Structures are given as C-alpha cells and as structure tokens.
What does this fold into?
Amino acid sequence: MPRKLQFNTLNDKQIHLLKLTYKFRFVTAPLLARYKDLKSRSSMYTTLERLAEQEYLGKYKTKNEGFQNKGTRYYLTTKGLSYLSSNYGIGAHMAKAIGGNRNVTERFKDQHIADLRLYLQIEDTYPDQFEIYTRTEVAGQKHFPNPLPDLYLKRFKSIDEKPDDYFLFDLTSKPLYEFKKDFPKLIEHFDSEIWEKKTGRPYPGILFICVDSKQEFGVDKYVISTLENAGIDELIIKISTSLGILKK
It folds into this structure.
C-alpha cells in the first residue's frame, strides 16, 4: 500500500521553482538564476537543495568526465508533482512521465537543459515578442504535432509578412536519420489542418536549430526534397544555427 505523502509548508519562492522545474523538466541553479535575473547563484542553489532534501525535487550530479562538468541538474519528483497537482491543478496528466524522470537517458536530460537555454536566448533576443511554451506545457494537446516541438513560440502581436507563431525544434543533439524519420509527420500534421480548426490561428512557421553548417546543409536538402515531392510550398520553414534568423 503506497504511503500517504506529507507536504511541507512552502513559501512563494519555493512554489515558483517547483512550477519552473515542471515547465522545463530539468533545470540547473545557474540557468534558473539567469531566468530570475539574479546576480548571485548561491540563493538559487540553496533553495533547490532544500526542495531536494524535502523530496519535492530529485537531482543528478554528473562527474567531470571528459571535461564535461554539467553540474547538478534538478527534476520534479512524484511528490513535487502531487503537490502542484493537489494545490494548483498542474500536471496530473504528466504523472507517468514525471515518475520516470530518474531513469531517463543522459541525452534526454541534456535536451531539456538545452530547451531552457534556448528559452532564455529567445527572451533576450526578442523581448516581449513571444509567449513561450515548453514540451511539458503542450503535452496532451492533440492539435500539436507529434513529435512535439521543443518550444512553441506564440507571438503577442501579429506582424505583417511573418508567421505569428513558430514550432521550434532543436536538432543540435539529434542525428540526421532521426530528423528524416520525424519530418514527414510534420507534413502530415500540416496537411490535416487540425491546428487551424482548433486554434483559429495560421499554421506556425517551423524553425530548425542546427549544431553546425554541415547539419544545416543536410536538413535543408532533405526539407526541400520532401516539400517538392509533397507539392507543398506554403509551409514556412527556417533552418539555421542561430536564433537570429527569426529577424529575417
């Protein structure tokens, strides 16, 4: 018989950090300090460690192998999710996924930390232009494509001759064969028109972020070929190694 969870009294700062950890799935103290625009990381680290001691958060600490010291990465535990679900109605549909956080691959953790970095870069580069949603936040919404975008960028104010929204896919740690497997699913989603019917908004542009020019070339070549074969020319796709391409 499962033990009944006992919740501590949490302050507003602690609750907000639980919500942020749910949003991004995996976080680090330096990145959350940057998110909160804090000059010191120490208070952020102390708060995260306290939440870990109370079992609202779990943590991974990677050894400095191959000069890749990734620091401590925190994730929401089942207790943390139960707290948010019970008190704020957040994330009950993610129970199975959150319960598996302790067993995910290194690449999975790295990908979600990369999502947080991209989020911060977009906020810095395009202040007050986009409302940004993570994969966790859009999971379970059937009008989103499968696989889910790493980030969904919803523009606050429409701009002429540019997409209002973007699906952002980070390909920097994804081999080309995986991208080729997933891209036709995006075409099917675009053709289905489920997005327009559900949201009343034009279909988002698609932004692929690549690790280098070699990957960018391979992705671009495949996209052009696939779109030509499908007879599609109205889907807006941007491929780059930089977020600056959104300004074009």
Observations:
- Residues 12-104 form a domain with the Arc Repressor Mutant, subunit A fold (CATH 1.10.10.10).
- Residues 106-125 form the longest helix (20 residues).
